[in-house]
Amino acid sequence: MQRKQAYNQIRIHRSKIPAVDFAPTKKLPLIGRIGLLFFLLLSLSAAHAEFAVIGGSSTVERNRLRTDAELDLALDRAPAEALVAGIPLNLSVDIRLYRLKGPLWKKQIADWRYRHVLDYHRLSGRYSVENVASGQMKTFTTLIEALNSLSLVHISEKLPISIHDNDRLQVRMRARLEKNELPAPLRLIALFFRGWQQTSEWQQWEIAR
Fold it and tell me: What is the spatial distance between Cα 89 and Cα 180, in angstroms, rounded to a whole number?
């Protein structure tokens, strides 16, 4: 009898929970969006997408470091839902330059960061990718197309004047989703959910000279 009463109370409680429409219809206030995202984060499956640096190479030409690399950027469900809910995402590629001093010793001599802002525009139903440094923006029909536009990296930077011709140099690269650029409530949530921990492993290679 007690079990039946408890079951009936659960049914009554569940019937009071309103249905939530996750389709991108109209823009919710920020607090509403954060609440919606928290609900989505709690219901995540075990599947987890990753960022990866597939490969890369660097050369020195006319005192400039030229780097080409390929990235695999698969956005996890939680950030993807946040994007559709109206929260832009910052994606960064970090490059570090080292001078190799020996088998176990190297010194960092330069550090560059390349940021892009990924956004979703509800009126047009299109995704945009903005290069923060240049201000250049491109739009895409799908999220996959937007991410693929960032998969090939071509970078040229002036070398520090402290580098000599006979120095052995190494480049390290990673790709990551910047959590520090998220709204404060979501930034706190992102610290505890694996779906937001989208940072590739560092990949490294010596520079051909």
Answer: 10
